[in-house]
Amino acid sequence: MNHDTENHDNHDTLDRAPSRRRVPGWAGLGLCLFPAVLLAACGLASSDDAAPATDAAAAVSATVEESPDTIAASTSATSTTPASTEPAVAPISFASQVEPIIESTCANCHIGTGPGTTHIRLDNAGIVAKASVGISSVVSSGEMPPWPASDDSVAFDHDWSLTTDQVDTLVAWHEAGSPLDVADDHPIEPSNAGVRLDDPDAIIPSNGAFDGTDAPEDEYRCMVYELPGVEAGGFLTAMDFLPDQETVVHHAVGFLVSGADRAAIDELDAAEENGGWTCFGFNPAPSAKIVYGWAPGQSATRYDEGTGLRLGPGDFFVMQTHYHFDDGLEVPPPDQSQFAVNVVADTAPEAAAMTALNVQVMLGPAEIPCRSDESGPLCNRDAALAEAVAKYGPPGALGNAILGGCGFAPEDFAGMTDGIATSSCDNQIATTGDLVSVFGHEHEIGSSFRMTLNPDTPEEVVLLDIPEWDFDWQLVYEPAETITVEAGDVVRLECSWDRSLRDPKLEPAYVLWSEGTNDEMCFAMATVSPVDG
Ligand code: HEC
Questions:
Q1: In whole angstroms, what separates CA 231 from the centre of its chain?
Q2: Of the four, 6, 53, 404, 417, which is 20 to 30 A from 527 by CA?
Q3: Ligand 1 nearest atom to the CA of residue 137, by list position
Q4: Cα gap 374→370, rounded to integer Å
Q5: What is the tens place of the pLDDT at every residue in 25-64?
Q6: 481: number of CA atoms within 13 Å, CB side?
Q7: How far apart, in Å, are the Cα atoms of 49 and each of 26, 45, 64, 138, 427?
Q8: Which one of 109, 130, 246 would you pick to mutate in the ligand 1 pocket, going by the greatest count of ligand atoms within 8 A of its CB?
Q9: Nearest atom (ligand 1) to Cα of 43
Q10: Distance 33 CA to ligand 1 centre (A)
Q11: What is the pLDDT of residues 179-230, one digit of tens each?
Q12: Which residue has the least CA distance to atom 12 on ligand 1?
């Protein structure tokens, strides 16, 4: 088996429609998805798109820098129910009730060099107590910890979301005046550190380091990672991205690239002075397949014993990293993030018995007409499509093929003029086997996402439900229980969009499937470990 064979499998989902034959496969998708994923990652960058900071959260930033007296004043000022009027209840212990929650669900990102530390640090008990108003606010709203999947989804490994009881505990502790039964400087130690690969076969540095001194606020950088020991072919059995400069490494997307594209990639890499090359808006190589996504806090990907991603001779990895440099903050030293992997070479005795995983792409239409109160030349679908093609070439028109492949026409969406658009598409599972992971993807105006196995049947299983699409936190979800899928099983993708999330400064336009941030997608991946039978 090589990539080409797998690529064909990836097409199968939409093969029912003849027009699908003309749709570029992974290469085209890569081209389309690439900037999408990047931009999807730029939560910290696009602060005006992010959920508005609550007053309480704003108070946190203020309180952390203020003197204790001011904090006490501001805390009691914002507290609606003073503790003294509350009926007597068992006091909440910081040490035995609050600290374990903070350490297991927040600390990993909010101490050390974690990604949340540029917003708020939770290094010790005293700081946590001062921040309790903000903590209580963000856990009540569900903003923190970031875990967009709802409980309608199947259970997932590494689920770091809070239970209702845990939220209640944090809120009640804040309302009781955030009392401490430990010293102020009692350190918070993360117990939710992502699960790392403890004994990787190799920890690969990127080919070059990226110095962000002259970089734009958001830089999308491709870097080559060699896969040692499998030059003649083999399997990739585990992966773990290890960010170097954690305060600026925001998100990463990993592509497996065929050895046949090596010369072209080396040329790109050599053309720029700084480590890697700017790769916003284009596909790293025709053979590139997206196989890995990393967001802060994510654990290592470790495939089941005896399974892995198939590597052809000379195959290598290209990691596309989104760097975000906060305005006004010091630029850290050059970043050289690492990639820890486990591999099995074809020459190894166990290789013969290995099973190659299938990463299957699933698609749905993205058609979001202008609201009835919006007007302009680009509200015409043909004009919007022509513009996408002018910008991105033939892949700009991929939306048409997807529409046809899913059995729809533009007229089916023409009535969605109240600013909310929805679409759905039944994709078919290509390979019988066990589901390893699922991943959903939309852009900035996505409002919900759902993936359902065998919908409207007694066997229906909601694989992934994201009731409020969160552009900033796109995670790869690994089902905790074994879910067996069969070739031909239906996976229904349901996507929705809300035009009120669109940047009001943009010219009114019919939004359709294309690769820019302001275009949209309804995209999913399912990784399946094939089983016989
Ligand atoms: C996976 C990493 C991660 C985890 C886990 C996490 N946070 Fe955050 N947190 C962030 C990032 C990143 C930000 C910056 C804003 C953003 O990107 O949403 C943030 C922002 C915040 C803010 C400031 C919000 C604002 O609007 O300014 C608070 C308060 C906060 N987190 C509290 C918590 C608490 C309490 C927990 C645990 C219950 C937690 N966080 C878990 C990454 C994380």
A1: 30
A2: 404
A3: 29
A4: 6
A5: 222 232 223 222 322 222 222 223 333 333 333 333 333 3
A6: 7
A7: 30, 9, 25, 17, 31
A8: 109
A9: 17
A10: 27
A11: 999 999 999 998 866 678 888 999 999 999 999 998 888 788 999 999 999 9
A12: 116
pLDDT > 80? residue 276:
yes
Neighbours of 346 (CB within 10 A): 16
Contact criterion met (CB below 8 Å) for 362 and 524: yes
Q: Alpha-carbon distance 395 to 28, whole Å?
A: 6
Cα distances from 64 to residues 74, 75, 170, in angstroms, run 11, 12, 18
Query: Is the bond into 145 cis (omega within 30 degrees of 0)?
Result: yes
pLDDT at 264 over 80: yes
Is 174 within 8 Å of 82 (Cβ atoms)?
A: no
Is the CB of residue 105 below 6 angstroms from any atom belonging to ligand 1? yes
Residue 521, amino acid: M
When pLDDT is cut at 50, 70 and 90, the band that residue 280 belongs to is low
pLDDT number for residue 236: 97
Query: Sign of dihedral through CA atoms 60, 61, 67, 69?
Result: negative
Residues 6+ apart with CB under 8 A from 58: none
User: Considering only CA atoms, which of 297, 328, 288 is closest in space to residue 473?
Assistant: 297
130 contacts 120 by C-beta, under 8 angstroms: no
